[in-house]
Amino acid sequence: MGLLVVMGAELSCSFGQGPPAVLAVLRPDATVGGLPIATVQDNAPLLNIPTFGLCLSEENPEVAAATAAALGVLTPMPCLPVLPAPWTPGSPTVQIDSLPALTASCTCACAWGGLIEIAEPGQESTEAAG
Q1: 94 to each of 22, 121, 129, how far by Cα in Å?
Q2: DSSP of 68-104, one letter per residue?
Q3: Residue 54 pairs with which residues in a beta bridge?
Q4: Domains assigned to the chain
Q5: Separation between Cα atoms, residue 87 and residue 46, nearest integer Å
Q6: Strand runs labelled E in the chain
Q7: Can you tell me the mean pLDDT for 22-51?
Q8: What angle do CA 110, 121, 116 make, to 5 degrees?
Q9: Residue 37 and residue 35: Cα distance in Å, rounded?
Q10: pLDDT tens profile 29-38
Q11: What's the average model confidence in pLDDT over 81-108?
């Protein structure tokens, strides 16, 4: 159970240093309040999930190199999410084009160690029944 996530939802990353990112949903197959509902596959970097400003993760090769060059002083670098897997867990009851709908409790892991979460789902009335 949980609120369905729609276009315009605000996202945060545990290693991002910047304002919340805004989720883009490109298929208008199903809507809530006129806004497209996201699925677990809406995780394409820069297409669905934009940058989070600067990245603070030393697992990010650019941050690691800049930090080494600064003699160990953490040096944030521009964020470019690397998302090797879809959002999890997805709705067990709501499917859009045979894909689980995205709910407010879903997370997505970045290859650089960051955890992307739904800060605001973009709507406050429609839940996925559980």
Answers
A1: 22, 16, 8
A2: HHTTT----EE------S--BS--SS-EETTEEBPBT
A3: 17, 78
A4: 1-130 (2.60.200.60)
A5: 15
A6: 2-3, 10-13, 16-17, 21-22, 31-32, 35-36, 54-55, 77-78, 95-96, 99-100, 107-109, 115-120, 127-128
A7: 95
A8: 10
A9: 6
A10: 899 999 999 9
A11: 96
